[in-house]
Amino acid sequence: MNYSVCISGYENDLKILPKLEELNTGIELQSYGLKGVSSPLSWDEKIKQHKKIIENFSGRISIHGPFIGIRNTHRDYLLKEAVKKRMRLTYEMAKELKPEVLVMHSGIVGDIKTWQLEDFWLKETIIFWKEEIKKYEKERIKIVIENLVEEEPDILNKLCNGVNSDFFALCLDIGHLERLFRVIPF
User: Fold this and answer.
1) Which of these, 76, 85, 164, lies nearest to 127 by C-alpha position?
2) pLDDT category, 124, cuts 50, 70, 90?
3) φ and ψ at 126, to 5 degrees?
4) In contact, 75 and 114? CB cutoff 8 Å
5) Which of 88, 94, 134, 170 ranks highest by number of CB atoms within 10 Å?
């Protein structure tokens, strides 16, 4: 099993890189989902920070892509266009930084369950990723879908099986499991 430590890309992150290499631990570069999306300048600055990290690290590199508002199944065409634009920028960033893995979230949110849109969500999300993954396959970058709000793995397994690509897989973030423990009584 491969482990990665999440870092944001600030100057002080450079200090821990030798120890992470010594431990054969990869890094997951973050903040495209929070701080890196507030403006074009912040997006470009995040890429510059991550380039500097990559220059100083010879281990496994993953990048956590944007996630807030990234739903590939919007019925509203304007929201869908905004997601497509963000995903184009994400692909360009990944091409430039060349990580082994790009971590993304499924985009499933509470209103999908509330409005019983799970089947619609799954069908549309499979269609989206089947098309999107073709670009990443050419770049040899694997997309992994990380658990976040899913209460069980079934829907993510169906998504992964539906996309059916060697460059599309699932990722378990054990830090996100805490939420499930609040939902599931022991």
Assistant:
1) 164
2) very high
3) -60, -45
4) no
5) 94
